[in-house]
Amino acid sequence: xxxxxxxGRYPARFGEQEFETTVEAPNADVAEERVYTNFGSQHxxxxxxxxxDGVDA
Length: 57
Hints:
alpha+beta; 3-stranded antiparallel sheet; 28% helix; globular
């Protein structure tokens, strides 16, 4: 599996919070899905609240 760096934003208490995280995934689409899953569970966010700006290999 490859490592992908995913950048984006999500709403926080005092405005939007930017993030950059690295995940292992077989392709970029799966990397995006893992970020939605992780941030959703950790921060109690819905997928529509998370904005992904880019995925780099």
